[in-house]
Amino acid sequence: MTARNLICIAFAYTKSIECEKSIQLILSMCLSEGFDILHTLLCDDGCCLIDHSTGVYGYLIEIQALFFMALRCAVLLLLKEDGEDRGIISQCCQQVQRNPRFYSIFDYMSPHGGLFVGNFAFGNCIAMLSSLATPEIIDLIESRLEELVGEMPLKVCYPAIGSHEWRIVTGCDPKNTRWSYHNNLLMLIWLLTATCIKTVPEARLHKDHLTEYYDDG
Question: Function, please (predicted)?
């Protein structure tokens, strides 16, 4: 809806009272005082796309990145008269940006690479797509393409768990053998492709004097 609003000037729905009220109701729910410390979204254990619980819970970066994108869209959609709401959203965006922590502790970490520790590739890709993350993540994927991508779709997480840890975490599910649940998710390639498409023009925008668009050439 935000994209259509930016492109189509005649798209008047976002200026309607119904749209404004809907956004404000959603914000009042998401930004209520029921949050822990920061205005971020808490995920329950077992919320992962993998069959069995693999310890994926808490403040997942993919959820926070999507929340961050939604807040930024809300700022664009709210009318200028809603100054108080816009101020609250901007403050929450800053909190979400400060929440992820950046470390460089892995052996395969390249000198100019990085990633959000404890999060799957899904979260890191969405974080890049929403501009919540730094360019170092895409640099890591490029420099370690053989390990992280190889000859099949981008791995969900790296490295794979195995042995006793695998038996405890996955419940010895035959569908969740070592590496089987780490690969073949095409949505990761979609996100990585979208991130690459976004990264290339971003690096050229200033040099190209903020060109209006890039054609296929």
Answer: Invertase that cleaves sucrose into glucose and fructose.
